[in-house]
């Protein structure tokens, strides 16, 4: 009895109709959208009533061909959504440069977000700041620490006597570097700092989170010093002017030249008599190329940085990363065709096949066809055996190296750029080459990146299938591409191409078990997903959904109720564990199609213990009754 009731209580008392069809508007990521802003939009907004901590609204905007926001919807927690009505007017005034498709302005759907922060915590008492005289000695220091990721870590001191930059990690120019400063501009910034009542600010605005960078802003005027610690300070009511001052220090010191290799780096290095024949110089050249700073790459080459690899200097003690094989010049520039072409023109790695092939992997992964073509013309092999290469990967603030696996085609498919896949396919690569996890290019085509264009991954899948790639390929865990992708349009394309909706992996699970795409569940059911299949734990997909939370359960119920009755598997016969007329344990699986039409409220069992089930009426238009059953045993 308990087993039956548990199964049936999964049926919600409220019936949800299928969602409206997905918007036909091209989808634009927030990174792309922000490059189209007419003027910067506020995304960190102080709001009365917001509690300290993380508070965010995710926005879905419809932007017209003229760049106007014609519709704005928000999602988030109930606590955050209550603030949405007061913000709609501001978001509705956002303007974008028109988005184009094939050179024609079109309406698009933009994904965005705004952070809600508490009102600013203004000083409770005033502290008199020192006066700034024409000859005042001023030192303004900004320290930014690392994070769980690749946040630049450095300290810059701007004073009336000059600028000193000390780069620690994730910067182009590590170590100490110096430049001149305009003393009047330094005093002008100090005056602005004093005007903001900086000396009266709290000493620290520290949020109770981890893995974020700490920013420490300090000013000393004739040895009268004040500093403010900003650790996600906006979440704790830090006045926005602190962030403004931090940015103004970076601007005055022009730190981007040392951080990302912006124009002016080489000139500053020359002024400090830097040696361009060193390992450090070659490392800076690679870093500038990796950031796509073409002008700086040109200037490093003109300054005489050697193209032949320079050995890493031996240090007194071994430090993490010192044993890594340095990344080649071409590989460093592989995501940026202009910088890459500068290095090719200079003859970089002309006889280094490994660097050419690794650079092609990088170009393929980034989906940069121009870079890939330049590398292939330079001698890179689109069918290179990656197992013979050492591949460097960075993520989460860590650098890892190891032997490669897979193929250039796998990386091309991962990019989600059909033109990149098409480019590599013309060299007739082996379609079923797999990586260390057993995944082929068909798997990587179903991955996701925020920069993906609508329909691009579907086209990648189609191109691979047309070339003969197996849509039912298996990885080391027995999964197929349909098990792995969570993109509804890719799932639909795979099914059209013959993907087996009931393929079972090593855990006995079919794609409807493993998908994290609730929108794809109706698709699986319509294509014949067998809901009676049990995994190796003995669970059906509905039973397995209990451990995945109410959203998955609701998605399954909704999909089953809205599916064509013939798409739902026939019910299994239910057997009583005892032939006696008593309450015994009953194992039961209820097909929901039988609950979508009028029926009675009694279950009867024959002497052999085989019974049938009928339950209260459910219709596709309305379903408000909770299932209940009476049993006669």
Structural class: alpha+beta
Helix count equals 24
Give the strand order of the largest sheet, numbering strands 1, 2, ... along the chain.
11-10-9-8-13-14-12
Largest sheet: 7 strands, mixed
Shape: globular
- In percent, how helical is the residue content? 25-40%
Task: Kindly provide the radius of gyration, computed on alpha-carbon positions and rounded to a whole number of angstroms.
Answer: 31 Å
CATH architecture call of the domain at 138-259: 2-Layer Sandwich
Mean pLDDT: 84
The CATH superfamily label of the domain at 138-259 reads Mago nashi
Q: Beta-sheet strand percentage? A: 15-25%
Give the terminus-to-terminus CA distance.
Answer: 10 Å
Low-confidence stretches are 1-23, 571-633
CATH class of the domain at 138-259: Alpha Beta
The total beta strand count reads 20
User: The CATH topology of the domain at 138-259, please?
Assistant: Mago nashi protein
Notes on the structure:
InterPro entries: Ankyrin_rpt, Ankyrin_rpt-contain_sf, DUF6438. ANK repeats lie at residues 437-476. The structure is a single chain. A 7-stranded mixed sheet has the order 11-10-9-8-13-14-12. Strands 1, 2, 3, 4 and 7 form a 5-stranded mixed sheet that branches. The chain is globular and about 85 Å long. The chain contains 24 helices and 20 strands. The chain is 30% helix and 16% strand. With 633 residues, it is of the alpha+beta class. Among the domains are: 36-117, TolA/TonB C-terminal domain, CATH 3.30.2420; 138-259, Mago nashi (Mago nashi protein), CATH 3.30.1560. α12 (337-346) packs parallel to α14 (369-377), α15 packs antiparallel against α16 and α18 packs parallel to α20. The model is unreliable at 1-23 and 571-633 (pLDDT under 50).
């Amino acid at each position: 009895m308990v087993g039956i009731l548990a199964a049936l209580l999964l049926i919600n008392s409220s019936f949800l109709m299928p969602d409206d069809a997905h918007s036909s508007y091209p989808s634009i990521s927030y990174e792309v959208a922000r490059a189209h802003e007419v003027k910067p939009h506020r995304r960190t907004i102080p709001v009365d009533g917001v509690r300290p901590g993380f508070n965010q609204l995710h926005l879905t905007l419809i932007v017209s061909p003229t760049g106007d926001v014609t519709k704005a919807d928000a999602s988030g927690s109930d606590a955050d959504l209550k603030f949405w009505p007061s913000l709609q007017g501001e978001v509705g005034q956002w303007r974008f440069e028109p988005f184009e498709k094939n050179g024609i302005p079109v309406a698009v759907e933009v994904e965005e977000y705004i952070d809600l922060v508490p009102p600013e915590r203004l000083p409770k008492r005033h502290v008199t700041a020192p006066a700034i005289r024409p000859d005042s000695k001023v030192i303004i220091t900004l320290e930014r620490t690392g994070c769980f990721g690749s946040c630049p870590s450095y300290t810059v001191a701007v004073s009336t006597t000059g600028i000193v930059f000390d780069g620690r990690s994730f910067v182009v120019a590590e170590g100490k570097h110096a430049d001149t400063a305009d003393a009047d501009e330094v005093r002008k910034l100090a005056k602005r700092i004093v005007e903001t009542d900086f000396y009266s600010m709290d000493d620290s605005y520290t949020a109770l989170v981890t893995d974020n960078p700490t920013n420490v802003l300090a000013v000393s005027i004739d040895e009268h010093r004040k500093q403010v610690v900003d650790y996600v300070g906006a979440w704790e009511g830090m006045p926005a002017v602190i962030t403004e001052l931090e940015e103004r220090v970076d601007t005055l010191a022009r730190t981007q030249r040392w951080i990302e290799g912006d124009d002016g780096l080489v000139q500053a290095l020359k002024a400090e008599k830097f040696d361009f024949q060193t390992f450090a110089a070659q490392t800076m050249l690679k870093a500038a190329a990796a950031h796509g700073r073409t002008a700086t790459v040109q200037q490093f080459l003109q300054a005489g940085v050697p193209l032949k690899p320079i050995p890493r200097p031996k240090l007194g003690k071994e430090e993490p990363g010192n044993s890594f094989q340095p990344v080649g010049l071409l590989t460093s520039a592989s995501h940026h065709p202009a910088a890459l072409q500068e290095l090719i023109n200079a003859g970089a790695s002309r006889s280094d096949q490994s660097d050419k092939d690794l650079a092609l992997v990088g170009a393929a992964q980034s989906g940069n066809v121009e870079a890939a073509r330049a590398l292939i013309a330079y001698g890179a092999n689109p069918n290179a055996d990656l197992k013979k290469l050492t591949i460097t990967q960075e993520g989460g603030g860590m650098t890892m190296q190891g032997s490669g696996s897979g193929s250039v085609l796998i990386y091309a498919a991962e990019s989600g750029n059909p033109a990149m896949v098409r480019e590599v396919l013309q060299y007739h690569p082996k379609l079923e080459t797999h990586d260390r996890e057993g995944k082929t290019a068909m798997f990587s085509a179903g991955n996701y990146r925020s920069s993906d264009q609508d329909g691009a991954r579907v086209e990648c899948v189609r191109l691979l299938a047309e070339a003969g790639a197996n849509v039912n390929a298996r990885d080391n865990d027995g999964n197929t591409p349909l098990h792995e992708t969570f993109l509804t349009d890719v799932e639909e394309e795979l099914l059209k191409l013959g993907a087996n909706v009931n393929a079972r992996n090593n855990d006995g699970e079919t794609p409807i078990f493993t998908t994290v795409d609730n929108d794809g569940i109706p698709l699986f059911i319509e294509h014949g997903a067998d809901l009676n299949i049990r995994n190796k734990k003995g669970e059906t997909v509905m039973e397995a959904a209990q451990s995945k939370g109410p959203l998955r359960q609701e998605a399954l119920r909704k999909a089953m109720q809205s599916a064509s009755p013939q798409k739902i598997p026939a019910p299994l016969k239910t057997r009583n564990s005892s032939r006696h007329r008593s309450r015994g344990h009953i194992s039961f699986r209820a097909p929901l199609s039988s609950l979508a039409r009028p029926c009675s409220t009694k279950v009867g069992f024959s002497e052999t213990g085989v019974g049938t089930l009928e339950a209260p009426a459910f219709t596709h238009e309305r379903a408000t009754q909770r299932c209940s059953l009476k049993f006669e045993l």
